[in-house]
Amino acid sequence: MKVLVYGSLNIDLIFSVDHVVRPGETISGKSLTKSAGGKGANQAAALAKAGLRVYAAGKIGADGRFLTGLLQSYGVNTEGIVEYKGDTGQAIIQLDKNRQNSIIVYSGGNGAITTEEITRTLAGFGPGDCILLQNEIVLLKEAITGAKRRGLAVYFNPSPYDRSIEELPLDMVDMFFVNEIEGAALAAPPEPGKDGADTPPEILDRLVNRFPDAEIILTVGEKGAYYGRGEIREKADAPDVEVADTVGAGDTFTGYFIAARARRFPVSRALAAACKAAAISVSRPGAMEAIPLAGEVFNS
Question: What domains, with CATH codes, occur in the chain?
Answer without folding.
Answer: 2-18+31-298 (3.40.1190.20)
